[in-house]
From TrEMBL:
This is Solute carrier organic anion transporter family member. NCBIfam families: oat. Residues 67-676 form the Major facilitator superfamily (MFS) profile domain. Signal peptide: none annotated. Residues 19-38 are annotated as: Disordered. SUPFAM superfamilies: Kazal-type serine protease inhibitors, MFS general substrate transporter. The chain crosses the membrane at residues 67-86, 106-124, 136-157, 204-230, 242-269, 289-314, 361-384, 396-419, 431-452, 562-584, 605-623, 653-676. Its main location: membrane. One of its GO terms (cellular component) is basolateral plasma membrane.
Length: 692
């Protein structure tokens, strides 16, 4: 990093060049009385401002509290975008662009892939003496904002979403019976080839989403590496845990805000600027409704730029940080001097890796972190979608449920775990035992995923037409609609008065369509049992008329198990996050002091490679295995979104994944506790380690 010249408040003179005051170098220089730069020069380098403009009134912000304030917003914004807005929009994006869950799993993994790839260069160049950590963090926020802009590009690169066809999608007898779905699909694809344009392949958008996630991962990588170090360097050792606790708590609150905010945006129609959904008789209760999933990323990218601006203004070290670093150097001076030669560091690297891998407690804590990371990353990406499909609720309501669970359970569990370690003054063995007990309880509450609802009634898929028994494979064509010439590319689901969903008015055999009260109503449906004459004009002077056989609404679910699921999932999440901070503390305590930074980096690599990177891919593939009706596509390689899931299998798959991961964590924590050998008690009079 080039040296900067700093302008004085009201003087035109140029201040002396900033000395190298970062990290331990400045502390050592001050200890030995180096006169290379005076205290006035150091003070100028520790002023808040931009490009030499640092007036006195801005210096009130040059404190650790204000730095923490802006970093907290950065951490919360990362969670809001990556774990909030994106995760709550996964099912909507799949339906909008015809993508499968395994494809969105690849997109979700892109964040951790980029974050993993940027770990070494960001920590190396950002951690060098003289490097400005705030500048790296601010640049990362700008890159993350660029990622949000790229993420919303597919919405503007494709045409308007065709939620429903403009003309009436009703049964028009052709006189030629269709006996198989394949013949219908052939006819639909022939129409598309002639220019009807209803089968556009949009799977190429997955690469744009992946590129955006790579930018998100690269931009966020300095936040929880250099950001943590910057906080730790500029506060006392005693206050460091408090500041970092606040920082990580805000990072946990971010996804919850994203869930709630993103869910509300899904109530707005995706093409609200050019299309009036009322004219299409569409509301957010319709199965083909697509909300404005992209709108939140515009706000997120703007906020990224706004937060980057003040972070850019912070110096390499805050005023008073040198004294704090001097104390820390005094404690570890002998160790540092022993490895001051870079060649010794290079030669000692393989030995350090082998030393940590030979530490059984550290090794098993790493494996426990990987299994916990796998289950947390997988459910963070796909739990909103599972709730939406399992309990037949809207994406907005599913996002609200996730937000209400995440804030108190995730944030509260993280805070409570760190508080209990300090309150009980636990030593390393006690901390590992606490992690073991919390994970065991969490494993028991994975039964929440066994709480499911029966499959919604869908004619030709989960139930037969006119309440007849369904076949093993989807059979949308029946005697009541075989001569209608229906196309599977026209997915326009309706709810019949019999409480059954139908693929489209055509597949329900409906002969007439009308519009009333912002909804489409269908009559004379040959596949729906008639209910007869119903008086709907009792509250007006209008004459009674026939009740419609179906409407373009989603059938209401009669399943009432959602509150039970939320309660059990809440307990599961509390005990899951209860072990996160203690596990981090145990990792730091079970290694030598001079190995802590390297141990955390090594653990971070293992958790990413074995946990968070493959997690969305595994979860997405199993969710796809639960699909029983896929969206029709003329391009066999295009895939297509799932239209109907089997609730039984999706709940069992999720339960098995959660149970296997949790049991793995229990085994690994138990092994870490069993193989742990405490140090001699000579270091402490009472035999207990310092919590700090």
């Amino acid at each position: 990093m080039s040296e900067a010249t700093i302008e004085l408040d009201s003087s035109t003179a140029v201040a002396p060049k900033c000395s190298n005051v970062n990290n331990n170098n400045s502390a050592r220089s001050s200890r030995v009385g180096s006169a290379s730069s005076g205290p006035d020069s150091d003070a100028e380098c520790q002023r808040f401002g931009w490009c030499g403009w640092n007036p006195a009134w801005l210096q009130r912000f040059c404190t650790a509290k204000w730095a923490l304030f802006w970093l907290c917003w950065g951490g919360a914004l990362q969670g809001l975008i990556v774990n909030g807005l994106i995760n709550v929009s996964i099912s909507t994006i799949e339906r909008r662009f015809g993508l499968r869950s395994r494809q969105m799993g690849l997109v979700a993994s892109g964040y951790d892939l980029a974050s993993f790839a940027c770990l070494v260069p960001v920590t190396y160049y950002g951690g060098r003496r003289g490097a400005s950590k705030p500048r790296f963090i601010a640049i990362g926020l700008i890159v993350m904002g660029m990622g949000s802009l790229v993420f919303l590009l597919p919405n503007f690169l494709v045409g308007n979403y065709r939620a429903t066809i403009a003309e009436a999608n009703v049964c028009e007898p052709t006189g030629l019976p269709f006996n198989s779905n394949s013949s219908q699909s052939m006819t639909a694809c022939e129409l598309n080839a002639m220019g009807e344009g209803q089968g556009e392949n949009l799977t190429w958008t997955v690469w744009l989403f992946l590129a955006a996630q790579l930018l998100h991962g690269a931009g966020a990588s300095p936040l929880f590496t250099l950001g943590v170090t910057y906080i730790d360097e500029n506060v006392s050792k005693k206050m460091s845990s408090v500041y970092l606790g606040i920082y990580y708590t805000m990072a946990t609150v971010g996804p919850a805000i994203g869930y709630v905010f993103g869910g509300q945006l899904l109530l707005i129609y995706t093409d609200w600027m050019t299309v009036d959904p009322v004219q299409l008789s569409l509301t957010s209760d319709s199965k083909v409704w697509i909300g404005a999933w992209w709108l939140g990323f515009i706000f997120a990218s703007a906020i990224c730029l706004l937060i980057a601006l003040p972070i850019f203004g912070y110096p390499k070290l805050l005023p008073g940080a040198e004294k704090l670093q001097l104390e820390r150097v005094s404690e570890a001076h002998a160790t540092i001097s022993e490895v001051d030669d870079s060649s010794k560091v290079v030669r000692g690297l393989p030995r350090a890796v082998l030393s940590l891998l030979a530490n059984p407690t550290f090794f098993f804590l790493n494996l426990a972190g990987a299994t916990e990371g796998l289950v947390i990353a997988g459910f963070a990406a796909f739990l909103p979608k599972q709730i939406e499909n399992q309990f037949s609720i809207s994406p907005m309501y599913s996002a609200l449920v996730m937000g209400l669970i995440t804030v108190p359970a995730g944030g509260g569990g993280t805070f409570l775990g760190g508080y209990l370690v300090k309150k009980w003054n636990l030593a390393c063995r006690g901390i590992i035992k606490m992690c073991l007990l919390a994970t065991t309880v969490a494993a028991l509450f994975t039964i929440c995923f066994l709480v499911s609802c029966p499959n919604p009634k869908f004619a030709g898929v989960t139930t037969g037409y006119k309440m007849q028994a369904s076949s093993d494979s989807p059979a949308l064509v029946a005697s009541c609609n075989s001569n209608c010439g229906c196309s599977r590319t026209n997915y326009d689901p309706i709810c019949g008065v019999d409480g059954v969903m139908y693929y489209s008015p055509c597949y329900a055999g409906c002969a007439k369509e009308d519009h009333a009260n912002s909804q489409k109503r269908y009559h004379n449906c040959s596949c729906i049992e008639q209910v007869g004459w119903v008086d709907e004009g009792s509250q007006s002077s209008e004459a009674p008329h026939f009740r419609p056989d179906a409407t373009n609404r989603k059938c209401e679910s009669t399943c009432q198990t959602l509150p039970l699921f939320v309660a059990l999932c809440f307990i599961l999440m509390i005990f899951t996050f209860l072990a996160t901070m203690p596990a981090l503390s145990a990792t730091l305590r079970c290694v030598q002091d001079d190995q802590r930074s390297f141990a955390l980096g090594l653990q971070w690599i293992k958790v990413r490679l074995l946990g968070t990177i493959p997690a969305p891919l595994i979860f997405g593939a199993l969710i796809d295995e639960s699909c029983i009706l896929w969206q029709e596509s003329c391009d066999k390689d295009a895939g297509g979104a799932c239209l109907v899931y089997d609730n039984f299998y999706i709940s069992r798959y999720m339960w098995l994944l959660a149970l296997i991961c949790k049991l793995g964590s229990v085994v690994f924590f138990a092994c870490a506790w069993w193989f742990y050998v405490p140090p001699s008690k000579s270091s402490n009079a009472n035999g207990k380690e310092d919590v700090n």
